[in-house]
Amino acid sequence: MAAAAEEVGNRRVILKRYVTGFPTEDDMEVVPATARLAVPPGSAAVVVKNLYLSCDPYMRSRMSRHDEPSYVPDFVQGEVLTTLGVSKVVESGHQDYKAGDLVWGMTGCEEYTLITNLQTHFKINHPELPLSYYTGVLGMPGLTAYVGFFDVAKPKKGDYVFVSAASGAVGQLVGQLAKISGCYVVGSAGSDEKVNLLKTKFGFDDAFNYKKEQDLNATLKRCFPEGIDIYFENVGGAMLDAVLLNMRLHGRVSVCGMISQYNLEQLDGVRNLFHIVAKRIRMEGFIVMDHYGTYRKFEEEMAGYLKEGKITYVEDVAEGIESFPSALIGLFYGRNVGKQLVAVARE
Amino acid sequence: MAAAAEEVGNRRVILKRYVTGFPTEDDMEVVPATARLAVPPGSAAVVVKNLYLSCDPYMRSRMSRHDEPSYVPDFVQGEVLTTLGVSKVVESGHQDYKAGDLVWGMTGCEEYTLITNLQTHFKINHPELPLSYYTGVLGMPGLTAYVGFFDVAKPKKGDYVFVSAASGAVGQLVGQLAKISGCYVVGSAGSDEKVNLLKTKFGFDDAFNYKKEQDLNATLKRCFPEGIDIYFENVGGAMLDAVLLNMRLHGRVSVCGMISQYNLEQLDGVRNLFHIVAKRIRMEGFIVMDHYGTYRKFEEEMAGYLKEGKITYVEDVAEGIESFPSALIGLFYGRNVGKQLVAVARE
């Protein structure tokens, strides 16, 4: 079989150079290559065809070169990027996988990938839902919202919840999970279009465009006259400083990310940390990979919500592998509306 | 009885003016007054003679006027300051107290005080130990160290523990509790004399004088080549920023106070908060008043350690009520060596 392996065109996205400051499309390059649709003899690997590739903020860290190991490994200059994706197995040397299986997990930013380590891949249990959802609401961002809200923030009915980057891949879900949990939820986003989505589509009680607000402290006081019990932190910087002023006693800050800081050479200073003492705040960071053991429970619960119409999900789909660099860069300018992904192939 | 009440001299410390920036002795004034050693008829109050008065960093907040309620009430301009103290009951209208009883709790910065609310007073169960210890190791700072270390930081044997302001009222105890718990502990302080105390008297594994270090990040890397599991935070600002760079995965920051920030008009910005995500750090503030329910358990345990010689305690005792203003101000310049208190009377 390996001898007769088909060789196919395989366009791929490589990292042209390590990035400092804001990344640009030119830091990446889409190059032609070929792939052999064959598993090395005796290896428990699979060859997959990539259908949907995910663009996520944490990837910014991987585009820089770190002297000390970062929380995610750096990309390698000149080599193909990797990302989470939804893929179809086309050849398998692994006893648990066969051609035609649909999986999600870490794959190459390319059309076909040889995956040798399947430890953190999941088979897709609900192919009746849109497959692209496994880059979002049924994948890593969904699980992120779920564990960051329930396991880290530990909501109680009636809590006042604030979500930043609230129309993003994670934020839109946190808001809807908060409503399902009987909380009052307000979101911030960076355009009126997104704010409108939050209020009309995702059921947030209120929302604001942070770019139009002069004084975030005053804005939060207006939105939360009683203060904030839970802040789901996606942005960092000035927003966090304003939130700290408005937290309630025993408030919780679930720290998922700080996208406002990822491209800065000089990070913003956060000045209001003493409120952590005065208000007995718990501020806790988490990484979704630590919670993959929760995935199957989450997948069933979330699939149920989707089928019952209790949760809705908005995706921003770029077409074709060539669009990957601009789609990824767009995250850092807030160009995406909803979860950003790239459709490489439909089946 | 009330009719025959004795009137005595009662020097007291008043707040002359609200403070901005660094407080000075001139912001307070020691004034003569008199006290009647009698309880108002029908009241469940007590009159106490104050023996030892505590000087604590949180009092700085009370010296300023806040537009919104702070976590502790502001002092009132022109009126006597209040603080925690060890006192002897001289007259009692309360069924649970009689003349001669020794108590600790909130009292006036004066020689005699009429206490009408005894809800947060504790009778002293171990008068065989130095009574002044009830302003420190057996009082609020002791309980602070105990709950902040055990209940908030949740140590495990072998954890790497860093304590700032480590020779202070709280820090010296955190270090010793950490050693009792089988941890490795390093402290920072602001003089070579204090550093010496940490190493020779309190049994810290290592210690440094932060004023002599050029690069706190490098210092912490030297002291903790494996990183820090628990940071007991007393100072805030630049030290916190350096600590965040050196925390280990799943580290905990128990936020007790941030004394470096209390006198600043413009607070320091902390830039390395993304490490909370990357290292899954839990940073949690606490206020000892929330934990008074633990006091009796703590008192017995700590009294046991003291009697067994497992814990030692260093106090900096200023003599006489007139010394209160300078003793309090000294905290913010690090003039005190060990727990600062004022001996108003010995019995």
Task: Walk me through the structure.
- By secondary structure, chain A is of the alpha/beta class.
- Chain A has 2 domains: 7-136 and 314-343, Quinone Oxidoreductase, Chain A, domain 1, CATH 3.90.180.10; 140-289, 3-Layer(aba) Sandwich (Rossmann fold).
- Chain A is 23% helix and 26% strand.
- The first copy, chain A, contains 9 helices and 17 strands.
- In chain A, the strands form 4 sheets. In chain A, strands 5, 6, 7, 8, 9, 16 and 17 form a 7-stranded mixed β-sheet that branches. A 6-stranded parallel β-sheet of chain A has the order 12-11-10-13-14-15, with helices on both faces.
- In chain A, helix 6 (238-246) links the parallel strand 13 (228-233) and strand 14 (247-255).
- In chain A, helix 2 (140-153) packs across helix 3.
- The longest helix of chain A is centred in the middle third of the chain and has 14 residues, at 140-153.
- The two termini of chain A are 23 Å apart.
- The model of chain A has no long low-confidence stretch (mean pLDDT 96).
- At the A-B interface, helix 7 and strand 15 of A face helix 7 and strand 15 of B.
List the helices and strands and how they pair.
The structure is a homodimer of 347-residue chains.
Chain A lengths: L6 E3 L2 E4 L12 E4 L2 E3 L9 E9 L4 H4 L19 E11 L9 E7 L3 E4 L6 E2 L16 H14 L6 E4 L7 H10 L3 E6 L2 H9 L5 E4 L6 H8 L4 E6 L4 H9 E9 L19 H4 L3 E4 L9 H13 L7 E5 L4 H8 L7 E5 L4
Parallel strand pairs in A: 10-11, 10-13, 11-12, 13-14, 14-15, 16-17
Antiparallel strand pairs in A: 1-4, 2-3, 5-6, 5-8, 5-17, 6-7, 7-9
